[in-house]
Amino acid sequence: MQELAICCTGSVVKLDAESTSDIDREFELRLADCSTLAFRVAMGVLHNREDAEDVAQETLLRAYKNFYRLRERERFRAWLARIAWRLAVDRWRATARRERREVAAAETPPSLTVEELATRSEFQQHLERAMDELPEKLRLVLILAAIEGHNLREVARLAGLPQGTVKSRLHLARKQLAEKLKWLARDTKLA
Amino acid sequence: MACERYKVSLADAALGELEPAPEAELRAHLENCAACRAAFDAERRLVAAIDLGVAASVAAEPSPELAVRVRQRIEAVPMPARPWFAGSWIGRWVPAAAGALAVVALVNMWFARREPARPWTLESAKDVPSQHYSQSGERVPDESVTPRVLPVRPVGSAAGSRRPHIIQKVVLKAVEAEVLVPPGQQEAILQLYEAVWSGRADAASLLAERGSLELVALKIAPLEVAALDLDSKPLEPASDH
């Protein structure tokens, strides 16, 4: 018995009857491209490369362990994106709690590293802070839509939402960011 | 400073979410209002910067070592034991069947624990007619009563139920002498009380039947034994055959 599997790149791969080695091989085919998806979702939440790679690693490991349970293999990308999102948000919350404790304990607030300051503009820092303040359901849609190659239909598929809902949440997310950053636009000249 | 009337439209237009009719009206206004034109340009630049910034926050590529690390972790962690039916058609139906059985079991448990509807009633003191019985058996209304409120706890199957139950308070009017309930009879007395107040039992008929509760003596006809004839021949012993 042969089954068809669609991996992340969109090509169709024929598989023999399911066996452990078949499942491993199928997962391996998806690993290269889907690791990028998991990493980018995590980056959108954490804004930190090291943390994002840790979360992506954890995401892929969990996906591997539970891959045999996934009946609809064509939903693998959406499934992976949701795992990455959940792990990234949990990590973000833990980090935010720790930073709040450190701020409360320290006399001076923690500052970014030199490398981080050099690579991120002031606007980008404020933007990322504003993104962190968005409600989760708006932030998810915003991040998925920002990933290259994701149109409205793809975002709806990944998020498991109707296209209309995705569109309205995206509009609301951008509107809220514009409201939060309006003062910055007045003070600085945006190119 | 942009015109107050068009402030919201400016923001929505910058986001590209304005309906055609309002957008046409705004465009017509922008041709004649320099302040609104400047505000609209600022909004567009802000939205463009936001879109670029959000895209930049997710545009990074993972390091080549990520995939290597993932493979190493996968190889290091022992694969969890998969059920023998994993991947087969059975694996699709076993969880659904188990779930259905669990639902059936829960429904059965719920019906088994469900207590029959009890007619809880709450009477006010003044609505409760109070009376007692005279020596002749006539019902006499109470002239002096002392209203008392006694808690009535759920009995029977509801007594041990974990579900929250409402403790109804039934007002009893104390008569001259309170009836002491023999041990083990309290539940029966309370159920009778509740049945009478709810109308399930007719107190009048219960009382009317009291008079007929008389034991009818069993009449047994005496045995008729023939008189002994002493003049008859003495009985001969029975012969052995």
Radius of gyration computed on alpha carbons of chain A? 19 Å
CATH architecture of the largest domain in chain A: Orthogonal Bundle
Largest sheet: spatial strand order of chain A: 1-2
Mean pLDDT of chain B: 71
Q: What do you see in this structure?
A:
The complex is a heterodimer of chains A (191) and B (241). Chain A is mostly helical and 191 residues long. Chain A folds into two domains: 107 residues, RNA polymerase sigma factor, region 2, helix turn helix motif (Rna Polymerase Sigma Factor, Chain: A, Orthogonal Bundle), CATH 1.10.1740.10; 83 residues, Arc Repressor Mutant, subunit A. Helix content of chain A is 72%, strand content 4%. Chain A contains eight helices and two strands. A two-stranded antiparallel ribbon of chain B has the order 1-2. Chain B has a two-stranded antiparallel ribbon with strand order 3-4. The longest helix of chain B is centred in the first third of the chain and has 25 residues. Chain B is elongated and about 155 Å long. Chain B has seven helices and four strands; from the N terminus they run αααααββββαα.
Describe the structure in brief:
Chain A has eight helices and two strands; from the N terminus they run E-E-H-H-H-H-H-H-H-H.
What's the topology here?
The complex is a heterodimer of chains A (191) and B (241).
Chain A: E1 3-6, E2 12-15, H1 20-46, H2 49-66, H3 76-105, H4 114-119, H5 122-133, H6 136-146, H7 152-159, H8 163-187
Antiparallel strand pairs in A: 1-2
Helix pairs in contact in A: 1-2, 1-3, 1-6, 2-3, 5-8, 6-7, 6-8, 7-8
Chain B: H1 7-14, H2 20-30, H3 34-58, H4 65-76, H5 89-113, E1 131-133, E2 139-141, E3 146-152, E4 168-174, H6 186-198, H7 203-208
Antiparallel strand pairs in B: 1-2, 3-4
Helix pairs in contact in B: 1-3
List keywords for this structure.
heterodimer, A: 191 residues, mainly alpha, Rna Polymerase Sigma Factor, Chain: A, Arc Repressor Mutant, subunit A, two-stranded antiparallel sheet, 8 helices, 72% helix, B: 241 residues, two-stranded antiparallel ribbon, 7 helices
